[in-house]
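Protocol step 4 of 6: structure prediction from sequence.
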Amino acid sequence: MSRVAGVLPLVAVALALAGCSGGGGGAGAAVKAKPSCPTKAWQRLANQIHAPVYCPRWMPDPLDGVIGGRWNNIRSVSPDRSYLMGFIWFERGSGELHVNLRGYPGRTSIPRCPAAVGSATIPCFADPHGHIRAKGIDATVYTVNQGADQWHVLLAWHHHGSLYALSQHVAAPLTYEGVVADLKRMLRDLVFVAPSR
């Protein structure tokens, strides 16, 4: 084998690894393989709360929607069976990706969050700006949100007497328009997971 022929595979490997480093939507990330829902953990969640959940089949690179995985920074299930699953990627100087998925079984009203001052509460999702529709879901777009969804664009919808939400942080290098595009794709690719017991 010539020296040049031996070097070419190494160059190809180096380029492939460089394309996979760090990335985030809009931050020079590599294209993912065909998206798939990490169903097992989402099935366990549906079984735990005795209610359907929505599993993300696609998320902005490098997020993968794996509960308990590398990017899953929030795993919260409350006594009322509501849940919050958060996924985050951050790289100093490059930016941040943060996506939350929520569910409120048996509840359709918007939850309330503590106000900035005093003991009053305010809606956790506010300032509706139209709708995004996909796969039979009619989601309201909220642009002023509280708690773990602060500085996020949030989509909220109802399914059989329950409230669900999907949000993404508007942070560099992403723009509002880029986040809305990501949310549209995530909504379109959600997988409905019913409890199996």
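Step 5 (inspection) to follow. Residues 113 and 163 are 16 Å apart (CA to CA).
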